[in-house]
Amino acid sequence: MRILALNSSPRKERSGTATILNLFLEGAKEAGADIDLVYLHGREIKPCLGCFVCWIKTPGICVQKDEMEELLRKRRNADALILATPVYVDGMTSTLKAVLDRSIPLVKPFFEVRDDHCRHPPRYDQGPDKVVLVSVSGFTELDNFDPLVMHVKAFCKNLNGEFAGAILRPLGAQLPLFKKMGLPVQDIYDAIKQAGKELVENGKINSVTQEIISREIVPRSEYVKRINEGFQQALDANK
What we know:
Layout: E1 2-7, H1 16-30, E2 34-39, H2 68-77, E3 80-86, H3 94-101, E4 112-113, E5 118-119, E6 130-137, H4 146-158, E7 162-170, H5 175-180, H6 186-202, H7 207-214, H8 220-238
Parallel strand pairs: 1-2, 1-3, 3-6, 6-7
Antiparallel strand pairs: 4-5
Helix pairs in contact: 1-6, 6-7
């Protein structure tokens, strides 16, 4: 399996997103996958102009010449697409959203009814990509991911992809700290790697594996108390 992984966190390899994504990719690589990891932040990816030149004048080719051209080529050659993002105001980063918007050259302008819904037919003769969402949130509740998951599932339907699962980790950036503190998180680390193996071997991620990854580590009341104390200390120190 050829995997294209897009890490859209502005903090790149230092991010909580990278902590989770790299474990996932490690498991996929152990299962035999060929990995292509791309950090989106800092790349030249302009917003979609909505001009439809890629549909009418130059079918399949965007009028804008930037790094999206290379990403579309990589996407066409991949069997699975991993979308990795922190939760930004109930959604994905603006960089990743631009990548999704700029993906319309991969479909034709015509309408077809698929699954009782108007869609665009794929431009290229290839099976639907497996798509996996990898995301972290600074909040404790799992439902903070709901709008993002719904968005990615809709993207899969529109671009003829197959949603293969979501790796969702509340307090994801804190996972290394929790491990350093001696909290029992090894099962979460193991489950993230297992999810990567499951994608390669089964084409989807087991629901039990996803539940382990997202499980509670510390009680919400305790975490809220500690995080507020930490922010207050930072504010006081800044004075």
